[in-house]
Amino acid sequence: MTKYFTLIAIIAFRIFFHPGYSANAKVPFTSLQDTPHYIKQTAGLLNVNATISKNKVFLNWVVSENETADMFEVEKSEDGKNFSLAAIVFGTDNAKDESYQFYEKAKFKKIFYRIKLINKNKQTAYSTLIEVSLKA
Predict the structure, then answer these.
(1) Residue 87 located in a structural domain
(2) Taking a C-beta distance cutoff of 8 angstroms, is the pair 131, 110 a contact?
(3) Residue in 72, 73, 79 with CA at minimum distance from that of residue 108
């Protein structure tokens, strides 16, 4: 009988006098996560391609983490080295992946394009060069 009384007393003591049950208890905060908080990734160019139709060049690109993209600068070059600004395309606030398009009249037999991605945090990234050749 003494064993049971002792066991019940220990359980009651742990329940009623545990610091967590006290109104003024100061229990240290602990986190259950071992990993740091989620940090939003910046946008990235997933796919860039060009097509020619009715003497127009169409550039299409897909962006991941689109909501962090601010704008895109479409640049073009005749030699693949010296680029000039062809257009600015502003990003949307849509989440996840997003598709964008730019087109212009084809003026040269051969032209190079690239996309400059500018994120809202001002980080930049360039696409690979896209070479477009018109058939004679």
Answers:
(1) yes
(2) yes
(3) 79
